[in-house]
Design a protein that fits this description.
2 helices; elongated; 5-stranded antiparallel β-sheet; disordered C terminus; mainly beta
């Protein structure tokens, strides 16, 4: 009898453990977070001048988490986030600290040298991972160069840019609506460069002013578009114009536009 009872008890325990095991299999995991590993491979000091990278995760348009990778030049980094389970979680890493849902410049300043990248990750399971190893250039350096006739007036000449987009929206990575404005004079070599943010459509204007005279205005967005500039490119090109001046108005002539790549940057 004792042997039979012992066998019966063991059978009951085995059955109970089996039920518990089945219960864990059918457990609803929908409320549990997904553990998202974000790896940032070592980067160049030419891009990450502050030796930091700002990382944020987004569920749709809502910011879920954010953190900072510190000491990114020459060092790999790894951060783990508890994020909501969802079919797509957007992860954004940049060399500029976001202000809410934008990466933008301050009115009166030229655009910073913004490098940023976004990855979309399936976070519907227990674990997910994503690696960042390269970044897109999201600014345009516009060079204005005086021709020989305008060179004698370089100390009295200034160039001003005005535009309806001041940076980048997150996580959409589209041009952010906002006031962009900056002004610069010309150097001894008759050149000046101004960095402008991504532009989502027409509206970018440039003006050349000689002393206190009324400025000569022109549509910089159209000038660049007519020259074949692609505003939708992930890596934005740079642009160059030559400025000529007469007693009535400024004459703007597009001479070249240069593709910028990251091939010479060491990660």
């Amino acid at each position: 009898m004792r042997t039979s009872c012992y066998i019966l008890i063991l059978s009951f325990i085995a059955c109970a453990m089996s039920l518990l095991s089945c219960g864990s299999i059918i457990e609803d995991r929908g409320e549990c977070p997904c553990f998202l590993d974000v790896a940032l491979l070592r980067q160049s000091g030419e891009i990450f001048t502050e030796d930091k990278a700002w990382c944020s995760t987004w569920e749709g348009e809502a910011n879920a988490t954010k953190t900072v990778f510190a000491t990114v030049v020459g060092n790999d980094g790894l951060q783990t986030f508890d994020v909501p389970r969802c079919s797509v979680m957007s992860v954004v890493v940049s060399n500029l600290e976001p202000e809410g849902s934008r990466l933008a410049t301050i009115v009166g300043n030229q655009m910073t040298r913004l490098y940023v990248s976004r990855r979309d990750v399936n976070c519907s399971g227990d674990l997910a991972q994503v690696t960042f190893d390269s970044f897109e250039k999201r600014f345009v350096t516009v060079k204005f160069r005086l021709n020989d006739a305008a060179m004698p007036y370089r100390e009295q000449l200034t160039v001003t840019l005005d535009g309806p987009y001041d940076g980048l929206s997150l996580p959409s990575m589209t041009a952010h609506h906002g006031t962009f404005n900056c002004t610069s004079g010309f150097g001894e070599n008759g050149e000046t460069t101004l960095r402008i943010p991504p532009q989502g459509g027409p509206g970018l204007k440039a003006s050349i002013r000689y002393g206190n005279n009324p400025p000569a205005l022109f549509d910089l967005y159209r000038t660049m578009s007519d020259a074949g500039f692609d505003w939708k490119c992930d890596n934005l090109d740079d642009f160059e114009t030559v400025v000529g001046l007469n007693s009535v108005t400024g004459i703007i002539e597009t001479t070249d536009w240069n593709i910028v790549t990251l091939e010479n940057i060491t990660y």
